[in-house]
Amino acid sequence: MKNILALISCIFISVGCLLLPFALEAQVDPAKKGIELQPLEKGNLSNKPKTGNNNTNMPPPDGEGMDSDTTKTAQSAADTLGFGPHTTTFLRETDVLYSINRSYNPDTSLYLFHRYNAVELNDFMSQDLGNLGMATRPIFYDAPDMIGTRLGLSVFDHYMRTPEDVRYFRTLSPFTEIEFSQGGNGRSDLKVSFSRNVNSRFNVAMAYERRSANRLIGGLSRRNDPSLTGQAIELSTRYISKNKRYKLLTTLLFNDHSVTESGGLTADIEVPEGQSFLDSMVQLDDTRLGFKLSEAESRQIRRTAHFYQQYALNRRENIALFHVFDYSSQDNYFTDRNFSQNQGFYDSVYFDPANSSISQARFATWRVLDNKAGFKGKAGNFRYNTYMRYRIYDYGANFIVDSLQSAVRLAKGDPQVSLDTAVSIPLNNELFVGGALRYFLPNNGVAEISGEYMTEGAYRAEAYWRTGRLQLRYKRSHYLPSAVVRSFWGNHHRWQNEFENTTADRIEAAYGFNPLPYLSVSPFMQIDNVQNLVYFDSAQQAAQAKSSLQMFRIGTQAAAQYGYWNAKLKLMYNHREGEDVWRMPTLFTNLLITYDRMLFDSVMEAQFGVDFHYHSRYQANAYSPASNQFYLQNDERVGGFPLATLFFNFKVKRVLLSLRMWNVLQGVTAANFYDTPFYIAQPRAFEIRINWLFFD
Q: Which side of the chain, N or C, has fewer Cβ within a 10 Å radius?
């Protein structure tokens, strides 16, 4: 009863916080205009594709912090040049939270436009199952941002839209963006987004995405044999009051992602002595390969309602109150409609196979109500924020055998139907306090400290310094194990665990310099020390490391330009000490070479290039469809294949087009390769991608 009252109280407080600023709006004076400094860089030392053309303005540091009134200037440009990317801007919620007056224009750059799948977009620092929309995992360890309880089912995270991804627009004319990617073997990805301002202070936007792909067997796909059906819907608004004191960002998200689980490839072959099973399989004709599973499916559905609002207490936003409300739900399903034939694939079966032909489970349901409120502000070159956060979450799981038959028999009280079909973690409350202090140094430098503490003993602390050519970062996280590793209840995997919190320390350093006028080099290093790491062992069970492990990464990033030629290189050496529970390739490299110039009397901007990736062979994790988890395996080594893509990107007016040939070295250096055991990499294919912007 107390939990229900806490939930109801939390909802009423959230609604009250949303409505209160509207009542106060007319009682304050308009804020002055202003512009802001660069934000703190977050994340690993890696190159990531741009999400828009950065339109950051530099000091003076005093000011409004989000929406300087540039409408007249933009309108003048529109009258002169017409509507276009220069009259459409968007911002990110993170910039608003840190009072950074940074906006972006729709991205019209050709840089990395040819990349669109999950592994490419993470700079090849992930492994996947070789096809669009399939499960992915990071190759290198990174502590989670959430120190409290997470669900722990993340293999489809790349394909799910989140509030952090939302673009909050401001437009002078209706803006429509259409993006379409069509690959070999039935892969396609369609994205459509639309935004327009209702008035100068209120914008509404919507987006829709649909992905599909066919199953791959070796180098071929089968028509009418889908491996992926996914869609996402996004609705968002951006509002600023007339006096510019109150700002509101809202988002509603729906994600539905369904994949056919093949279980990987198999073949009835004799393996030559001294050769691995995968090395033998990669040389086989497609007709000799088969799938381990048939008619099996994983499905994940997510729903999110997200609101960010802030209210300034003085004219220059030196002090502002902010509130973030978030409600999210996630349902995870695994269904094997041909269980009677697939039964040999599973290590365990937790029901009577004689009475069922279908294995069906909703093995995780997740509900979170999250409220964060605090104050933030600025004083000279200082920026600060502090907050209190309250979360309520609910986790449960159940399985159904032959769902229709068993439901009827259970309703009739059939004693042969087990009632032990569900497990749940009761409603839980989590309380956090945290904050950050940032100071802007001369020459675009920055120093920041931030931290968060949770009442159950979890915490994180981070310090960052960037000045001149040097960047330094130290981060320590002490975080809770996820709900899934503590308790899982499926048809083929079950466990109950009491794990200790994981502690992770990270040190990063990078230094950039220019040894030659056309060459820039940035060597870097990263050291991780992790205690009590939770992982999935070779028996596909959640486990916790008994001793600490250390992971070292050293490397360099370099960029060169000579005439029309451009090259970017990332080279890394990786090493691990301690318990063998996180495996990664020793060598890792990316190389991008492009030839960029204007063609046809400067009508077309063109880019020819090759995108190259290589990592050494290592024992990559295998994948379990029934639990949606990657786990340790000790039999097969993958990688060691040079993956190369030839591409031609060009832009004519507001249309970007990419033509590419993926995996051009297949059949040259080797027949192909596996990036995850028994899941062959995407074969050579011609692919096309187009992005078209409309401003009327």
A: N
With beta carbons less than 8 A apart as the criterion, state whether 176 and 193 touch. Answer: yes
Lowest mean pLDDT segment, chosen from 521-530, 605-614, 672-681? 672-681
Angle CA 252–208–300, to nearest 5 = 70
Contact 322, 375 (CB under 8 A): yes
Per-residue pLDDT of 194-230, as tens digits, reads 999 999 999 999 999 999 998 877 666 566 678 899 9
Query: In whole angstroms, what is the distance from residue 647 CA to residue 659 CA?
Result: 6
Instruction: Copy the structure tokens of residue 371.
Output: 């409220």
Q: Given a cut of 50, is residue 12 above it in pLDDT?
A: no
pLDDT, tens digit (0-9, with 9 covering 90-100), for 65-75 = 344 444 555 55
Q: How many residues does this entry show for the chain?
A: 696
In our burial notation (b when 16+ CB lie closer than 10 A, e otherwise), range 339-355 reads beebeebbeeebbeeee
CB neighbour class for 287 (10 Å; exposed up to 12, middle 13-18, buried from 19): exposed
State the amino acid at position 106 in one-letter form: P
| Strands laid side by side in the 104-105 sheet | 53-54, 104-105, 88-91, 168-171
Region for residue 443 given its phi and psi (left: phi exceeds 0; alpha: psi -120 to 50; beta: otherwise): left
